[in-house]
Amino acid sequence: MNRLWVGALAMGVLGSSCGKKPPAAAGRHDSVSDMPSMPGMKGTPGMATAGDSIGVPIDRGRAGRLGITFARAGERALQRRVRLTGTLAYAEPRREYVNARVNGWIEGLRADYVGRPVRQGEVLLSIYAPDLVSAQEEYLSAKRLNDSSLVAAARRRLALWNIPEDQIAMLDRTGHAQRTLALRAPRSGEIAEKMVTDGQAVRAGDNLFLIADRRKLWVDLAVFEMDAGAVRLGTPVTIAVQGVPGRTYRGRVTFIYPTVDEKTRTLTARAEVDNEAGALRPGMYATAEVAPSGRKALTVPAGAVLPTGTENLVFVNRGDGTFMPRPVRVGARTDSLVEIAQGLKPGDEVVASATYLLDSESNLASAMQGLMLQMGMGLNQGGMQTGGERGGESMPGMDMKGMDVKGADSAPKGVPRP
Fold first, then answer.
1. How much helix, strand and coil, in percent to the nearest 5, is found in the chain?
2. What are phi and psi of 32, to 5 degrees?
3. What's the pLDDT at 366?
4. Which candidate, 298, 297, 295, 308, places its Cα nearest to that of 350?
5. What is the spatial distance between Cα 92 and Cα 105, in angstroms, rounded to a whole number?
6. What average pLDDT does this structure show over 251-273?
7. Helix (H) or strand (E) holding 403
8. pLDDT tops 70 at residue 158
9. Number of helices and strands in the chain (H, E)
10. Please, which residues have CB within 8 angstroms of residue 413's CB and are 6 or more apart in sequence?
11. What residues contact 263, with CB distance under 8 A and at least 6 apart?
12. Which structural domains are found in the chain, ordered by start?
């Protein structure tokens, strides 16, 4: 009976939405279709019998006023766009650490702040190391002795300590050991990390700088499990950043991490994006739109599918203007289309919008059909009393689970009150 009251309420909404006053004739309903006579009564025009499904005949003109539209199922490109969020970061192949290979002290620090741009070969700092001074003296001694094997060994030792060739050439020209060693940038970029200050003592192996080039950046995108199938290696992405309004960047997915984050239930897909102008900066939040290649599938508009909780329904034209609810099995979805895996064939006409209106009317007709069958057989179900239980007397009211709904001021004689 709950479906009856819900359907009746929907019928009232449908009638009022047309903007017309209800006609004076009793039994006339201004809804999607003129309400047929009570369902379940055989021989009445447009009436379903006990074993029939309940359909809804639709007047096209009235449907337009109610906002109901129609479409046909057909083969269409099912291209689903997935929206992701991520964070910009330096591309790891474009990062390089500068470290000390000897024990010593920092002198003449030139790269003195984070973010400072540097060029390959530029002097970053000078380092005083007694071991380097000793190695230079050994090299000069070997040259004075004119022993080629000793000279080669001493020169190899200087190279292993990362003394550049130009300083060794200066050592050959002057014949004097240099007190400090100049440490140069191994690549162009910017100082991403700085772990040293002027005058600081350092040990062999200590990292002094991180130099990174941001002409190409990585975007680590969080992909939910349900969207994992739409992201593949090589998939193109369009990236937008709030810090650079009105501009988008294009890139491609270059790597997908093999594991899923247990806390966020997302996997990470990495995309590479060009940043020649330098407007993008590591750490910025980015939104990305992934548009995988579409495939052909039987689809209907998204509004045509009505989920009921246990199944999905589509109202299909029976061929005579009556639309019947039909269960379907759905597949992939896009913003505007739903794939129909089973239940429809190409060319079927369906209701594309406002399907809930038809569902309400169909439910009401089905509920009233069951009610009339129940009353006609004189059954007593759920506390509903019919005329057969009152000795042929007329039925002034219905008692539904203790609720006495009467049409008279008092109960008939001989019928006890609950």
1. 25, 35, 40
2. -55, -40
3. 64
4. 298
5. 29
6. 91
7. strand 403-406
8. yes
9. 6, 25
10. none
11. none
12. 1-62+354-388 (no CATH), 69-76+296-352 (2.40.420.20), 82-91+214-293 (2.40.30.170), 101-205 (no CATH)
The b-or-e profile of 266-277 (16+ CB within 10 A means b, else e) is bbbbbbbbebee
Residues 6+ apart with CB under 8 A from 390: 412, 414, 415
pTM over 0.90: no
Amino acid at 82: V
pLDDT one-digit tens code per residue, 372-407: 666 665 444 444 444 444 444 433 433 433 334 333
* Residue of 70 and 28 predicted with greater confidence: 70
**Mean pLDDT, all residues of the chain:** 76
Instruction: Quickly state the pLDDT bin for 371 (edges 50, 70, 90).
Output: low
Task: List the structure tokens of 380.
Answer: 């007593």
Residue corresponding to tokens 């593949």: 232
pLDDT, one tens digit per residue, over 283-315 is: 999 999 887 666 788 889 988 898 888 889 999
Which of 299, 410, 385, 255 shows the shortest CA–CA distance to 73? 299
Q: Which residues pair with 201 in a beta bridge?
A: 105
**What is the C-alpha separation between 106 and 96, in angstroms, rounded?**
20
The residue assigned the tokens 């390089």 is 96
